[in-house]
Amino acid sequence: MKAIKTKLDNVLIIEPTIFGDHRGWFMETYSDAKFKELGIDLMFVQDNQSFSAVKGTLRGLHYQLDPKAQTKLIRCTKGAIFDVAVDIRKNSPTYGQWFGIELSAENKKQLLVPKGFAHGFMTLTEDVEVQYKVDELYAPDYDRGIAWNDPAIGIEWSMDIKPVLSEKDEKAPILANAENNFIFGGK
Q: Could you give the residue numbers annotated as active site?
């Protein structure tokens, strides 16, 4: 297992080691000991799974305010997604910048999105399943979102189709107007 740095501080691509033979393959998607060896010390408290039937489904950009902020470890176990993290830590040198990567059942990559970052994804295929671990329980009173198409962020979603959105995501504010209590170098 290896961790690959991205242009955003502490947003990491996790590549598992895959062991294969004539029967198929095996991999560890998470190991506390191996994560600690990579300098990642987290205690995950909940696993989540989503299913999206339609290609072009967009979920995000989501985050939870402190003190209920979540670090997420995301992987796609069926189909493919374009997964995005956005730095929303005020005073960060990369504030408002984004990183995106294709995660798929085929490439088996994972993305670690720490607290202080908004997260979202768009499905690139039909019948997509996404699984992710979080280090804080879901707290609806702290749940917030940012518009997926905020021009100040300028995410280059990988498809030129009108996304399928939830009502919540359709109404999400732009980053400049979003409630946000993350400070770079703070807490």
A: 62, 132
